[in-house]
Amino acid sequence: MTPPVEPGNPDESKPGILDRFRARYHWFDHVMRAQERYQESKGDFYAAGITYFTIFALFPMLMVGFAIGGFILASQPELLAEIQERIKSTISGDVGQQLVDLMDSAIESRTSVGIIGLATAAWAGLGWMANLREALSQMWGGARNEAKGFVRTKLSDLTAMVGLFLALVLTIGLTVLGSSGAMKQVLEWVGLQDVPGVSIALRVASLAVSVLITWWLFTWVIARLPRESVSFRSALRAGLMAAVAFEVFKQLASIYLRSVVTGPAGATFGPVLGLMVFAYITSRLILFATAWAATSSDNLATAPVDPPNPAQITPRVEFREGLGIRGALAAAALGAVGALGISRWSRRP
Mind listing the UniProt keywords for this protein, alphabetically (predicted)? Predict the structure, then answer.
């Protein structure tokens, strides 16, 4: 229990350093409001769940990739024979032949692997999208619109999942295009590799385009994926903040991957750990940006206010048996006064 503030001690009534900073700097107050919303809505809990579903959905996607590779190799026997010869020349003995037989059996079962992979990927992806939408809705305050029905909801989740996947592939592709090796190859194709400053200009342009596409992507995620109606205008600033932070994080992640894959242990576990960290940080970034958008001054002013709880009126009925103590005393006093009055009246001459 907080002790009462004594009037003679003025220091107890002064606001703390954090409160003074929030009152002085509006941007800091906004950040603190976003952090409070993020913590109250269990942002870390939802980010961990999204990371789990992201890693879980990768396995059926790998199955689909293997099935696509099987169809490509089955349609090109020359390429298949060349790969088999390289495997045998690289790994001699029974081990090389076992790898070739394993590849042949995988190619023969490409149809079943592809069907199972597609079905599992669709199921895992829809679950991932449903959890992502639930997390975003909690950041916006947990409001809900009327249900659209199971089929319409799943179709909407599927469309959103495909669009999000394509946008992510596009942004990652632009980041790869801005790397040093890819930039040199592109400049050699167009014959501009010797122009002074062209590589820097092209890299800056690639990063700018990547930020713009990521800005649109995060704005769409923040505004359209929650289970409520939110305008794009209310999420533009949050989307830009998330896009810039995500671009910086991608550059740092690429440096991390290049540094950890040099050793045997890093080459084995580094990509997996890097993918988990990448998914977790990205999930936290999206959820915090959504909380930042939801706690802006404009959105707080237009946010719906919950109606008060309905008043409950309970009638109070008291039952009294007999006169009771007060009634008996009043009756006795009234009787005494009446008797005294009658006695005086009867004594008159």
Answer: Cell membrane, Membrane, Transmembrane, Transmembrane helix
